[in-house]
């Protein structure tokens, strides 16, 4: 296999780094999957070969996340931004104009709110805009409306670097509406309490890998509510009834996701990913907090994301030098999102501890040279 | 590279066979694209590496199909069935209930009609249902309504094996509505007369390769008409304004499509694909017509698809033996669509002449042994 070894560490927020064994296997099987004479990209989605790949991916995913049998696992397209419309088209019915409450904790939930307003009476139940998106509003302060079609949260804000350690317990808040959680950028890094969830979705291109695949978990009783204007290809009921094969699914992305699921399982499952996420993120946050102010992260301790760590240099005129030196040191894609600025290190499952160690080592060295 | 050589010939209707050099290059670049230290699947879609891949793919596609500057080239998701809703959500506005005329020539256009009826007053302008889908209704007989938002055709019916040799000239029929053409399964096998087109779309998983990518060509004056309920991620105006990067695009599928575009160009472009399509399909149709009735194709000569050739054994009890023998001879995925039965050989651009020669050779041998 033609590749430089070791590879640089890639901190992209998504599409993002993939486990090297997954890429090697995909490369090896590109022309001929398991001796069938076809590559995965060339298989009919209705043939026995791809059906086995698809079923295995679903089964491993169910096992990894302990998905209960009353949840459907759907493989869809359109990403998180597509899902921002697909969710209300599916859940705000059967009549238009239902109530949707969105907890605004950053850029992603804000986009979800704006898109839901096309289909529903959607409002912010809470917002951290006023405090500079540094903390997650306490659930007790959320203004939840009686009879809302659903409550939306983004449990990890990729751009702002905030994360909910667990899904909120709406029942404990006296709310009977189903919870919709956008888990795009931390799925498979911690367990999901399914008893609190109605719909969980995740674009695969962050913590799983290939762009163009969206995972959607839908509780059985939430099927059949779609608005009449919901496209068939994006109607959860239709997709579920056809086993994600109403239209041609993104077959290669499903295959690669399946390889990632197997890799996670072989590493020790979600429990081990959880442990590593705690270890990796603590290493970086501890340095940020102890470095004496050369760098800093602005998020409250209780709301810090283990997946996406935005940080800022005290002297922002050094940003370009920091990024150039990082690239030379084999530390890629550290530039922050344009709406936030500064730097961002994404520490997804596929990022080894050694990558974070190398990053912190570089940061220390850079601070010493420019402090 | 671990692969058996030569590979079997794969006649799948889609996802379908890819050019071997494309697969080899994709495998070689899996862990490191052009020395950047990342595989294509791991790149931020906003980084300079992927932007160059994306821009190159668009430029080569524009060159191959001589796309005029007043057409936008969009890379979207959701496939043909998704597009069946996305087209009316974009073009049947600005008020709901616009008129949509659909020319029904087979399974795909029939699905397009049914989905358009969710958003518009959509009707069949013509239908070949009554004649068993053996011919394309003559344009002069189409019942086109004054002021229709658009007229929809499927210029190659993958399941039924019918193809329009050119896009219909609506102006010559006295119709001023824009033409929408679903070219999914014959795109890049012949030129497109853009003066006749308003929107052309194509799922990539048939004649280009990877599933999960939809190519959409939209004439500039057709932007800005979307219904209010059109999701932002599927609004042609939004997608065009963001250069297909409003949401994360299916990056790997775009990369592979770009490799296919380069391969087509290196082979001699669309003119050469056109010549080969004529040669390959003639070889198979000539044998079907001359074989003395052991096999037959039911489509009228003028409507026969060069891409998808359904055929039937005179004695259908031999179907399983035919398919088993074909597999042994290295001829894969020849079973017909379940709604049609019999056999189907898809002869997309990536199918070499040698594959069709091998198929006809096998068919002759099988007929001799069972005739």
Structural write-up:
The structure is a homodimer of 371-residue chains. The first copy, chain A, has 371 residues and is an alpha/beta fold. The first copy, chain A, folds into two domains: 27-265, Aspartate Aminotransferase, domain 2 (3-Layer(aba) Sandwich), CATH 3.40.640.10; 269-370, Aspartate Aminotransferase, domain 1 (Alpha-Beta Complex), CATH 3.90.1150.10. In chain A, 33% of the residues lie in helices and 16% in strands. A seven-stranded mixed beta sheet of chain A has the order 2-10-9-8-5-3-4. Chain A has a three-stranded antiparallel beta sheet with strand order 11-12-14, covered by helices on one side. The N and C termini of chain A lie far apart (42 Å). The mean pLDDT of chain A is 96. Chains A and B meet through α1, α3 and α6 of A and α1, α3 and α6 of B.
Set out the fold topology:
The structure is a homodimer of 371-residue chains.
Chain A: E1 9-10, H1 20-28, H2 48-65, E2 71-76, H3 79-91, E3 99-104, H4 107-116, E4 121-127, E5 150-154, E6 156-157, E7 162-163, E8 179-182, E9 199-203, E10 214-219, H5 236-241, H6 251-267, H7 269-290, E11 295-296, E12 308-313, H8 319-328, E13 331-332, E14 343-346, H9 353-370
Parallel strand pairs in A: 1-13, 3-4, 3-5, 5-8, 8-9
Antiparallel strand pairs in A: 2-10, 6-7, 9-10, 11-12, 12-14
């Amino acid at each position: 296999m033609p590749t430089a070894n070791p590879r640089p560490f890639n901190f992209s927020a998504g599409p993002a780094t993939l486990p090297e064994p997954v890429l090697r296997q995909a490369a090896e099987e590109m022309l001929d999957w398991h001796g069938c004479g076809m590559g995965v990209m060339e298989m009919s989605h209705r043939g026995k070969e791809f059906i086995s790949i698809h079923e295995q991916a679903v089964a491993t995913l169910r096992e990894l996340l302990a998905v209960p049998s009353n949840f459907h696992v759907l493989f869809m397209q359109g990403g998180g931004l597509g899902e921002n419309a697909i969710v209300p088209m599916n859940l705000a019915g059967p009549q238009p104009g239902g109530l949707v409450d969105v907890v605004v904790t950053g850029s992603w939930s804000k986009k979800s709110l704006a898109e839901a307003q096309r289909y529903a009476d959607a409002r912010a139940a809470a917002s951290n805009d006023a405090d500079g998106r540094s903390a997650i509003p306490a659930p007790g302060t959320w203004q939840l409306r009686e009879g809302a079609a659903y409550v939306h949260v983004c449990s990890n804000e990729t751009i702002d670097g905030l994360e909910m350690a667990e899904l909120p317990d709406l029942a404990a808040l006296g709310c009977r509406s189903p919870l919709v959680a956008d888990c795009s950028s931390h799925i498979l890094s911690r367990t999901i309490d399914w008893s609190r969830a109605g719909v969980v979705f995740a674009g695969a291109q962050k913590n799983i890998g290939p762009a163009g695949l969206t995972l959607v978990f839908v509780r059985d009783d939430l099927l059949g509510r779609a608005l009449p204007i919901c496209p068939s290809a994006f109607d959860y009921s239709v997709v579920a009834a056809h086993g994600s094969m109403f239209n041609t699914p993104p077959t290669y992305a499903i295959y690669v996701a399946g390889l990632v699921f197997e890799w996670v399982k072989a590493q020790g499952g979600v429990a081990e990913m959880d442990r590593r996420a705690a270890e990796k993120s603590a290493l970086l946050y501890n340095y940020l907090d102890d470095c004496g102010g050369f760098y800093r992260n602005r998020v409250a301790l209780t709301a810090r994301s283990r997946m996406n760590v935005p940080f800022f240099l005290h002297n922002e005129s050094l940003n370009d030098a920091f990024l150039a030196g990082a690239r030379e040191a084999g530390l890629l894609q550290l530039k922050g999102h344009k709406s936030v600025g500064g730097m961002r290190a994404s520490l997804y499952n596929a990022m080894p501890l050694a990558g974070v160690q190398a990053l912190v080592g570089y940061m220390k060295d850079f601070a010493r040279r420019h402090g």
